[in-house]
Amino acid sequence: MGTLRPLLQLVLAATVASCCSVTRPGDNLSLGGSQVYYSPDGTIFALGNRSRFENEDFLEAERLRSPLPRWLEFLRLGKWEYRYPNGRKKAVISYEIAWYTECCTGGYCEQQYEARSGHFEAWWPSGAQLARGTFGSKWERVEANCGGDKVRRAVLTRDAQFWDEAGIPADRSILDVAGVPLEKL
Question: Cβ(87)–Cβ(93) under 8 Å?
Fold first, then answer.
């Protein structure tokens, strides 16, 4: 019985270390270098930096056999550029990695997620400016397996501007008309 206790402590410590290793902001979060993602026809669709954190939504979609695009395999980090099939810019959006508390086998651990942040721009397929502004944050409660926590959700701030393809000011519903869902890219 005396040798079982140190062994149990060692197993518990290994479980906690493997389950709940915590990465703090400022740590090296990037896989390094910009990644380029191509459409099936060979044109560039998206480019940006991936974090080293796998996207749980991507893993779940794979399990359900309804895969998401490869560029969603890892959480996005920093500035990302999206393009139309004609090669012109569609949008430029920045992402940060944020955390919320989850329960793991060894206790509390932090779960990473991506949050849109900072300045954004979007264009019509013709190259005309569609939108420009800043993402702000709103706190939203999420349910977790140990009760729940708050996460940051991106919201368009009041400085956001929108234009129709002729350059005439418009409201944010023009994003739906253009098919550029800034909050979903």
Answer: no
